[in-house]
Amino acid sequence: MRIFVAGATGLIGRRLAGLLVAEGHHVVGLTRSPERAAWLRALGAVPAVADAHDRAAVMKEVANAAPDVVVHQLTDLSVGDPRANAALRKAGTRNLVDAAMAAHVPRMVAQSIAWAYEPGAAPACEQTPLDLHAPEPRQTTVSGVAALEAAVAEMPEWVVLRYGLLYGPGTWYARYGLYAREAHAGQLGADDNVTSFLHVEDAAEAAAQALSWPSGTVNVCDDEPAPAREWVPAFCRSVGAPPPAEAPPGPRNGWARGADNRHARADLRWQPRHPSWREGFAHL
User: Fold this and answer.
1) pLDDT one-digit tens code per residue, 129-155
2) Model-level pTM?
3) CA atoms within 13 A on the CB side of 186
4) How many domains does the chain have?
């Protein structure tokens, strides 16, 4: 299969590109960094260098690749600016979808997130509406997600992967990542807000499997949504940080509810290597 991976040198994209090459696919990897083109060639992929915001360049690279499927793993999180990431989700996705449709690509698999759902009591399933009326600054993130998902759904065939919060090598939740540093500084709060996690390796493998999944949205997260009161102490232990200060009991943010992965597990037969953050954190 001919596969165009947008964001091929990013956190998930580089793992995914390697998986796809190993499976014998012809992979064209889009990166905005000319310096990373050599890495893609060494991997066995064909580099395509362009900025996703450059509409003409994206149209050209997708047309030249003539892929059977486009995999969208574009993010802009290098400096942790949600506005930049939302802008890429809107403009970059629009460019990528238009390029795919102009090149008569039948299918797209795209990265989204599993914490953009509206407030509720239980972990959210795929039918739960997005939190479209959230106040700022959350509104910036949710509106970017909504624009991305709506654009991708214009494709003849499409899968939107709503990933849980990523942890593992290279992420912010790694042994020496951003939140490990915050844990050592005593800045991680152990409150009642619920999170669904996902190991970065499971994220890449899910994207590879989604090449054959039916169209729709899929929560791709581990089996155990958990309040920070449970996972923060475990994370601190895993990175050698002191125990966190426990917040007094109180209402959680309504949207901090976690996500339900039963559709991926039961209907699509997805099996994460790391079914719980408890096991995953222990190996950080």
Assistant:
1) 999 999 999 999 999 999 999 999 999
2) 0.97
3) 4
4) 1
